[in-house]
């Protein structure tokens, strides 16, 4: 009787399916958690009783009482703001988080740069108003 010969093929390598699952879950986690990150700058927002949350693609502008500007968490010089806003989708929401003590002229400057870039959907961020004491 003749001995059987078997062709031993190497394994297909690293299993990709579990790796894809892990990467997808990490991607979803970071997308969700990035929506809840506080502004990069420490700003004290004014309070409003009619404030509501917006859930759409947005760009965040933070202005401190000292006039420091941050765009999406990165501190930026004021002259570079129009260039950073240019070329964005016109439906993008611009969220302006200005400190209570910030110069009103800086808020207007941020609004002007947004309008010049064609971004007309603008929201001023506020803190929720505390409930009245009983």
Task: Write structural notes for this entry.
28% of the residues lie in helices and 19% in strands. It is of the alpha/beta class and 134 residues long. The chain has a domain at 47-128: Nucleotidyltransferase, domain 5 (2-Layer Sandwich). The radius of gyration is 25 Å and the shape is elongated. The mean pLDDT is 81.
Keywords summarizing the entry:
134 residues; alpha/beta; Nucleotidyltransferase, domain 5; five-stranded mixed sheet; two-stranded parallel ribbon; elongated
Share of helical residues = 25-40%
| Cα-based radius of gyration, to the nearest Å | 25 Å
- The coarse silhouette is elongated
Strand content: 15-25%
Distance between the termini: 97 Å
Output the structural class.
alpha/beta
Task: Summarize the structure in short.
The chain has 3 helices and 7 strands.
Layout of strands and helices, then pairs:
Blueprint: H1 16-34, E1 47-48, E2 58-63, E3 69-71, E4 74-76, H2 81-85, E5 93-98, H3 104-116, E6 121-124, E7 127-128
Parallel strand pairs: 1-7, 2-5, 5-6
Antiparallel strand pairs: 2-3, 3-4
